[in-house]
Amino acid sequence: MISWLLKQPDKDEQIPPEKIAKTYRWHQLGVLLATCIGYIGYYIIRLVFTAEQNDIMKAYHFTTANVGLILSCFGIGYGVAKLFMGVLADKCDANRYLMVGLLLSAFINIFLGSTRNLYIMMALMFIMAITQGMGAAACQKMIQFWWGPRMRGTMYSIWSSAHNAGSFICVAIVQLAVFLFSGSIAAVFYTASAVSFVLCILILVLGADRPKTVGLPDIATYTGDRVILNDGQISTSDQTDLNVGQIFIKYILKNKLVWAVTLTSMSLYLVRYGIQSWIPAYLVQNKGFDPINAKWLIGIFELASVPGVIIMGAISDALKGRRALVSIFCVLGTLICLTIYFFNNNHTLIIVALIIMGNLIYAPLTLVGLMINEVVPKFAVGASTGFMGFFQYIFGESLATALIGILVAKFGWLASNTVLYGASILALVFLLYTAVSETKMQKKSQINL
Q1: Is residue 370 over pLDDT 90?
Q2: Residue 417: what pLDDT?
Q3: How many CB atoms lie under 10 A from the CB of residue 281?
């Protein structure tokens, strides 16, 4: 199994020059489908517990603090896993790595649906988080390998939107399973795993690791793609003889822009999960929503953001990679929507604010994920993804789940509102620094043309 997962050698037989363009397009389509389908599967598994939180609290006699602890176990485990699993992804076949992570997550999800013990659920959530940590790095590597900078923002945004679609599909699967199996909570978890098993097969059939493994030239040769590093050096290679530690120190820890983008993403993740994880509980307890309608709003919040994320990604491409600038405007809009969501009791306005906010939160989250990959060589994409993911989930999601759960239980929902406002403002500060750095990098790129 280990040798099967490791990075595969370049294919000896090369595609004839006259067929390269057509073959490239077909493989790009397959890779896009594999990454989107794969990440939909990851999110179907990941959000079952969140979607069922009200039913679980009622049936298992859990409090918001209990639910927050379980969710925070995922956040902590996922943050640690993204760091190590992201680094490991740089040494593996990205497509196979993606499939194995989903397969293991689906198996663990079955056990999660089979217990009512708080501490076992916490442990299983932590273990599942480790396997879930295999997904993002694999997908982001494949996108970096298969597309040049002129289309990468759009393709990355399409892939990133898959998790929004996965969240909506998760809610639909939950509701279908509840209907088919008379409200059985365990059956909901089992159904989600069954769907993900099918998606694993599609990943293997459709995807591919790198262009060279199927006899195609690498993306640098095909499109002239290159990376301008923090020190002004140019990188085009997708492989290296450096070991994991050398890559991590040289291209991650010593890269100021990696730190700035990472801290931006951490702040945005706190906002994202501070909203998403508590939609059912917040709207039912604080705004008088029907529990079933509140559950559906998780999916609506996610799915409605898909067009906005793709549009913002395309705009960043049209602005020649000014991704931080686009993100700044999105965060400013998020602050307005947060105010409506927190201090208005009109259900229609709250739903509209959620829909708009989904676009405005996920667009910059998508773009910072792309930015972190574009400031390191392709052989360090997994490491950069993992490094950012560590901060996203250890300090972002865990604060948005455990801390907010505890604060709400003790001080009420106003404490949650204060945390989310603060995180949004912090994101703006880091984005301003990143935007300045982005301009400098573009000037270096033009000088080196």
Answers
A1: no
A2: 84
A3: 20
443 pLDDT tier (thresholds 50, 70, 90): low
Residue-level pLDDT at 108: 95
Give the residue ranges of DSSP H helices in 90-117.
94-112
Q: What per-residue confidence (pLDDT) applies to 431?
A: 92
Are 85 and 139 contacting, i.e. CB atoms less than 8 angstroms apart?
A: no
Structural contact between residues 353 and 344, judged by C-beta atoms closer than 8 angstroms: yes
128 three-class SS? helix
Q: What percent of the chain has pLDDT over 70?
A: 92
Residues near 165 by beta carbon (within 8 Å), at least 6 away in sequence: 36, 40, 302, 303, 306
Asked if 134 contacts 101 with a C-beta cutoff of 8 angstroms, the reply is: yes
Rounded Cα gap, residues 294 and 374, in angstroms: 38
CA distance linking residue 178 with residue 398, whole number of Å: 29
Query: b/e map of 211-239 (b: 16 or more CB within 10 Å)?
Result: bbbbbbebbbebbebbbbbbeeeebeebe
- What count of Cα atoms within 13 Å lies in the side-chain half-sphere of residue 312? 29
pLDDT confidence band for 276 (50 / 70 / 90): confident
Task: State both tokens at 148.
Answer: 């040049």
234: three-class secondary structure by DSSP: strand
- Widest CA span in the chain: 67
Averaged pLDDT for residues 302-331: 84
pLDDT, average across residues 177-206:
89
In total, the chain counts a number of residues equal to: 449
Please state, in angstroms and rounded to a whole number, the distance separating the CA atoms of residues 29 and 27: 5
Cβ atoms < 10 Å from Cβ of 161: 25
Take residue 78 and report the two structure tokens written for it. Answer: 């996922």
CA distances 340 to 5, 334, 337, 375, 428, Å, are 48, 10, 5, 36, 19
Q: By 3-state DSSP, what share of the chain in percent is helix, strand and coil, each rounded to 5? A: 80, 0, 15
Residue reference for tokens 């040289």: 250
For residue 335, how many other CB atoms are within 10 A of its CB?
A: 17
- Tell me the one-letter amino acid at 240: T
Q: What's the predicted TM-score (pTM) here?
A: 0.72
Residue 449, pLDDT > 50, answer no
Local structure of residue 227 (DSSP, 8 states): E
Nearest by Cα to 414 from 285, 223, 260: 285
Give the integer Cα–Cα distance in Å for 141 and 150: 17
CA–CA gap between residue 148 and residue 226 (Å, rounded): 8
Contact of 36 with 158, CB cutoff 8 Å: yes
